[in-house]
Amino acid sequence: MTMTRRNLLSLIGATGxxxxxxxxxxxxxxxTGLTAAEWGGxxxxxxxxxxxxxxxxxxxxxxxxxxxxxxxxxxKAAWPKVDYDYIAGWEGSFNSMIAEDWVETITAAxxxxxxxxxxKIMMRDAKGNVKAVPRAVGGxxxxxxxDTAPFAITKVDDLFDKRLKGAICWxxxxxxxxxxxxxxxxxxxxxxxxxxxxxxxxxxxxKSGNIGRxxxxxxxxxxxxxxxxxxxxxxxxxxWAAVAKNFKxxxxxxxxxxxxxxxxxxxxxxxxxxxxxxxxDFINFAISPEMSALYAKVAxxxxxxxxxxxxxxxxxxxxxxxxxxxxxxxxxxKVVLGQQDAWAKRWETDIAPLL
Amino acid sequence: xxxxxxxxxxxxxxxxxIAMLALxxxxxxxxxxxxxxxxxxxxxxxxxxxxxxxxxxxxxxxxSLDYVATGLxxxxxxxxxxxxxxxxxxxxxxxxxxxxxxxxxxxxMAAFLSPLIVPAVVIGFALLLFLSRIGxxxxxxxxxxxxxxxxxxxxxxxxxxxxxxxxRRLTEAALVLGATESQAFWTITLPLIRSGMxxxxxxxxxxxxxxVAVSMFLTDPTTYTLPVALVSNMRASFxxxxxxxxxxxxxxxxxxxxxxxxxxxxxxxxxQGLFRS
Amino acid sequence: MSAVTAIPLRKPASAVPALGRTTLLLLAPGLLLLFVxxxxxxxxxxxxxxxxxxxxxxxxxxxxxxxxENYRELATPSxxxxxxxxFKLSAAAALTGLLAAFPLAYCIVxxxxxxxxxxxxxxxxxxxxxxxxxxxxxxxxxxxxxxxxRPLLLALGISPTSRWYxxxxxxxxxxxxxxxxxxxxxxxxxxxxxPRLCDAAQSLGAPAWKAHLGITxxxxxxxxxxxxxxxxxxxxSAFVIPMVLGKGRVLFLSNTIYTRFSDxxxxxxxxxxxxxxxxxxxxxxxxxxxxxxxxxxxx
Lengths: 355, 277, 299
Fold this sequence. Notes:
The complex is a heterotrimer.
Chain A: H1 5-12, E1 32-38, H2 42-52, E2 57-63, H3 72-78, E3 86-90, H4 91-99, E4 133-145, E5 168-171, H5 179-187, H6 196-208, E6 211-215, H7 218-226, E7 232-236, H8 237-244, E8 249-251, E9 261-269, H9 276-286, H10 289-299, E10 302-303, H11 321-327, H12 333-351
Parallel strand pairs in A: 1-2, 1-3, 5-6, 5-7
Antiparallel strand pairs in A: 3-9, 4-7, 4-8, 4-9, 4-10
Chain B: H1 3-39, H2 57-64, H3 66-98, H4 105-113, H5 120-133, H6 139-164, H7 169-176, H8 181-210, H9 215-218, H10 226-233, H11 241-263, H12 266-270
Chain C: H1 2-6, H2 21-49, H3 69-72, H4 77-111, H5 114-129, H6 132-143, H7 150-155, H8 163-191, H9 195-203, H10 208-236, H11 240-245, H12 253-261, H13 267-289
Helix pairs in contact in C: 2-13, 4-8, 4-10, 5-8, 6-8, 8-10, 9-10, 10-13, 12-13
């Protein structure tokens, strides 16, 4: 899967173009019962609101128990029997599901609104078929709690400052696809294919004593921030949004030298299910401009539909072409995903003993 | 040793004992109190103590969430069934293990304890793979299997612990006097191990009701336990609904304990053991 | 000896060197359960641990070639470090827990009034029922780096973010779960010890500590071993407690396994860690189980 800058721009920088309403589903038919795996909290709340605005499908919502990867062993064990019509996920989990050949190919005929979603962000299999429908985009980036951080952080070097003793909450080896170490690699002149500079900086950071907590789950990070234990970190959108509900935070998405990464959240339609058409129809409805805007507002992730407006509170995720060029790093996800296992082991041998 | 020195050493021991017990109890009670504070915390996030304001919002949320009732019903059904199976099977196994030193006894004891060594995530994962392979994909059966595995060792161990202290000569005396083995069991052994059975049952019930790590692998889209539902509901922010649930559960158990103590009495429930205090 | 025990003779219950029919019948349901829903799944896991893992996949492929690579790559100092940390903290917590639980259980049975006894047992049962997740966060807020104990810690010159303190905190978390479990387990044991033995020793002039050390403790030894084993096994496999209180810096084996079972999805490697852990734990527990009471001690 690749994301080019130009395509992402058009989606993230989209400003207020109001599109056509999605094709409304016939109200006369009896509703089809669908089972969907979603994230808890604000995301499922957004999806419930969207589902309430149509009546072709009725949902049994199943919530992800932790990360989106937690559902994989369940599917693997029950395969070829599948319990879910669609599964919400992101690059990390979609990649695995595509590799296992669990998901349906989606075409513009199935989901016409796909035409409004930037093509390059879509995840494809080896043959180039689209395998997941993106619905929103979120960021993974550096930031800090404005009221408790000892000073304004502006560069990666600041992370090594003595004043931050124990004040950094750093993502553990299962979080954010370990893009945090790619961010360090970029600082040291490397990238996802040349990670040595990143590992060197990571070692220095671990030795510095500035890392107060390694967060293994999203909740870990949020708790550490809200309780005042730590004040600086690198995390994904939902975690920052959760802290931002109660505390002022500074999101360093547009800070030269501190890389920002983007991820998609979307739908994967599962194979071996009887309701393919109903599922696709619902997904088509959910990514329509209006529903995309509703999702963005409730779930706190920026819309991907080019015709939907990005709400003002998500301005940190709206980049002008120039901004995108200088702040957003689009890694080669093939490399990143292929290296997860190796990086996790590297973390265990090189970094964990230093903490 | 003369009497004065003995008195003094006894006094020192008694004093040290009281101080230590006070410390232990304080340590045990603190998190209980913090949990109660958390459940009434008006903030929507986990913040430093004490909370600036109190509210009932988490209890209201607990009552209003649609999957709480479903989850609770499943949790209670599983916990009760698990406890019954454990007490029957576990007590039998413990009694057998205590019957003498046959070859392989140590190995069997280790075997009965071994599910405790294996992290719950591993048990859940391994069970999921295995049960699917033999065609069991029903959530309720899977959960019941998982919960029995992780709780059975507690019953075996607690019953064994209450058996090992007892005087074996009592059973032998009964046998010599003409009682059959089963008579000796019902009249002598069972009353002695009642405290072990009750304790084990409490552990089994509590562990089953609280488990997340095993259950999250074994639920299906329509069958899930309460803790799994509550934990899944938090994506990014810690949701104190789970603290409210914990406080309610404790209140119910406190009430139950009170009722049991008033109408049955702990001494009868737990058994007196051989020697009354 | 072995020839004799193999003959299924009806013997008096006082001497049963062989596995009798009743014993076997009593053991059968438990063994069957353990075999089907514990041993067989673990066997499946052991098989998974021998399979080759291709990065990017979910677990191993059905036709993956067999390999020992998943075990070989565990032979690192860092893995040994996690192993050591897990067993060190678990043993420390289990021993401390026993030291706290034994006197508590003794007082509940022998010293407290019925009302005090009921209150104490009620409290312990409530503690056992307290949600592990909530309990851990409560401990974090009470004794963690932003907890109410923070001023006290700073006054004593203890840094709440130092590794030493974090280890202590994880130990305290384990202890908090272990003490109620151990105390309740020991109640039955102590009930069955004749208090007159100890009283007699004391009336003959032995100081209380000597009487208890010489009589109560040896008589309670099997129960103590049993309680220690429960505590130790509980601690070794703990997951939430080190995850939250260890701040991701003090790791247990279960946390390492979780990393492999979650988004990394390297199940063969996670399975290998699980199997290694199981084998080492079983060896350690068998050693502890060898502690047997000396026959007739104290009488």
